[in-house]
Amino acid sequence: QGRDAVDKYWAGIRNAKSWKLEVLAVGGHRDQPWQAGRSTLVQSGAQGDQVSVVEFLAVWRRDAKGGLRLAVDYYRY
Fold it and tell me: What is the three-class DSSP state of 30?
C-alpha cells in the first residue's frame, strides 16, 4: 500500500527490459472516474524475451480531501 510499495514492487521484477503503460479510454463522473488500458512488460529469459500483456480497468474515488484513490483495479491476461 502506498507509492513506496508500488515502486518497490515494480523495481523487484526480475530481468525486466521494458514496461509500457497505455491508457486507452477514460470516463465516468468527476468523483468516480475510470480508466481502461493495457500494460506490456518485456522480460529477458533463457528462451529469449518474454512478453506479458495485461488489460486493466481502474475505478477511482474522490476522498474527503479531494484527492483520487484507487477503488477497483481489475486486470486480465
Answer: coil
